[in-house]
Predict the 3D structure of the following.
Amino acid sequence: MERQSFPFTTRAEFLQHLSSCIARAEHTLTMFDPDFHIWELGASSTDAQLRHYLKNGGRLQLAAHEGRAVERDAPRFLRLIKDYGHLVEVRRTSQQLRQLTDSFCIADERHIVRRFHADHFRGEAIFDGPEDTQTSAERFITIWLESAPGLYANSTGL
């Protein structure tokens, strides 16, 4: 496949590219955002995509600074975590990582949707560009290792 790059500046474009990224995932999805509040993880369409992905053996890792928005606004996603707990891992970042403000989703280390700052929608989606995922993938490993299990502790008991 040939590398495709799509800059974006709106919430609708971000969500469209995020959906495309999830749809392309086969084995791994790694996601980082300060709080995932604009990701629409609780939307029925996102739930259906993630359930299909997990049903086919994919693994999902999420890391965030806090999960109140998801706990409040995404009951479907909390059910998904419960239903697929063996394939979904969620972590809460440590205090020293709270200054991180970017946001990204990486699928199979080939596809990425990233916003340069979580407070803005400006970003890019790159599909079939494994070299473009490398820096964010390395950042995610660092974030993951510096995070603790239990992002959504109040709702899921993790």
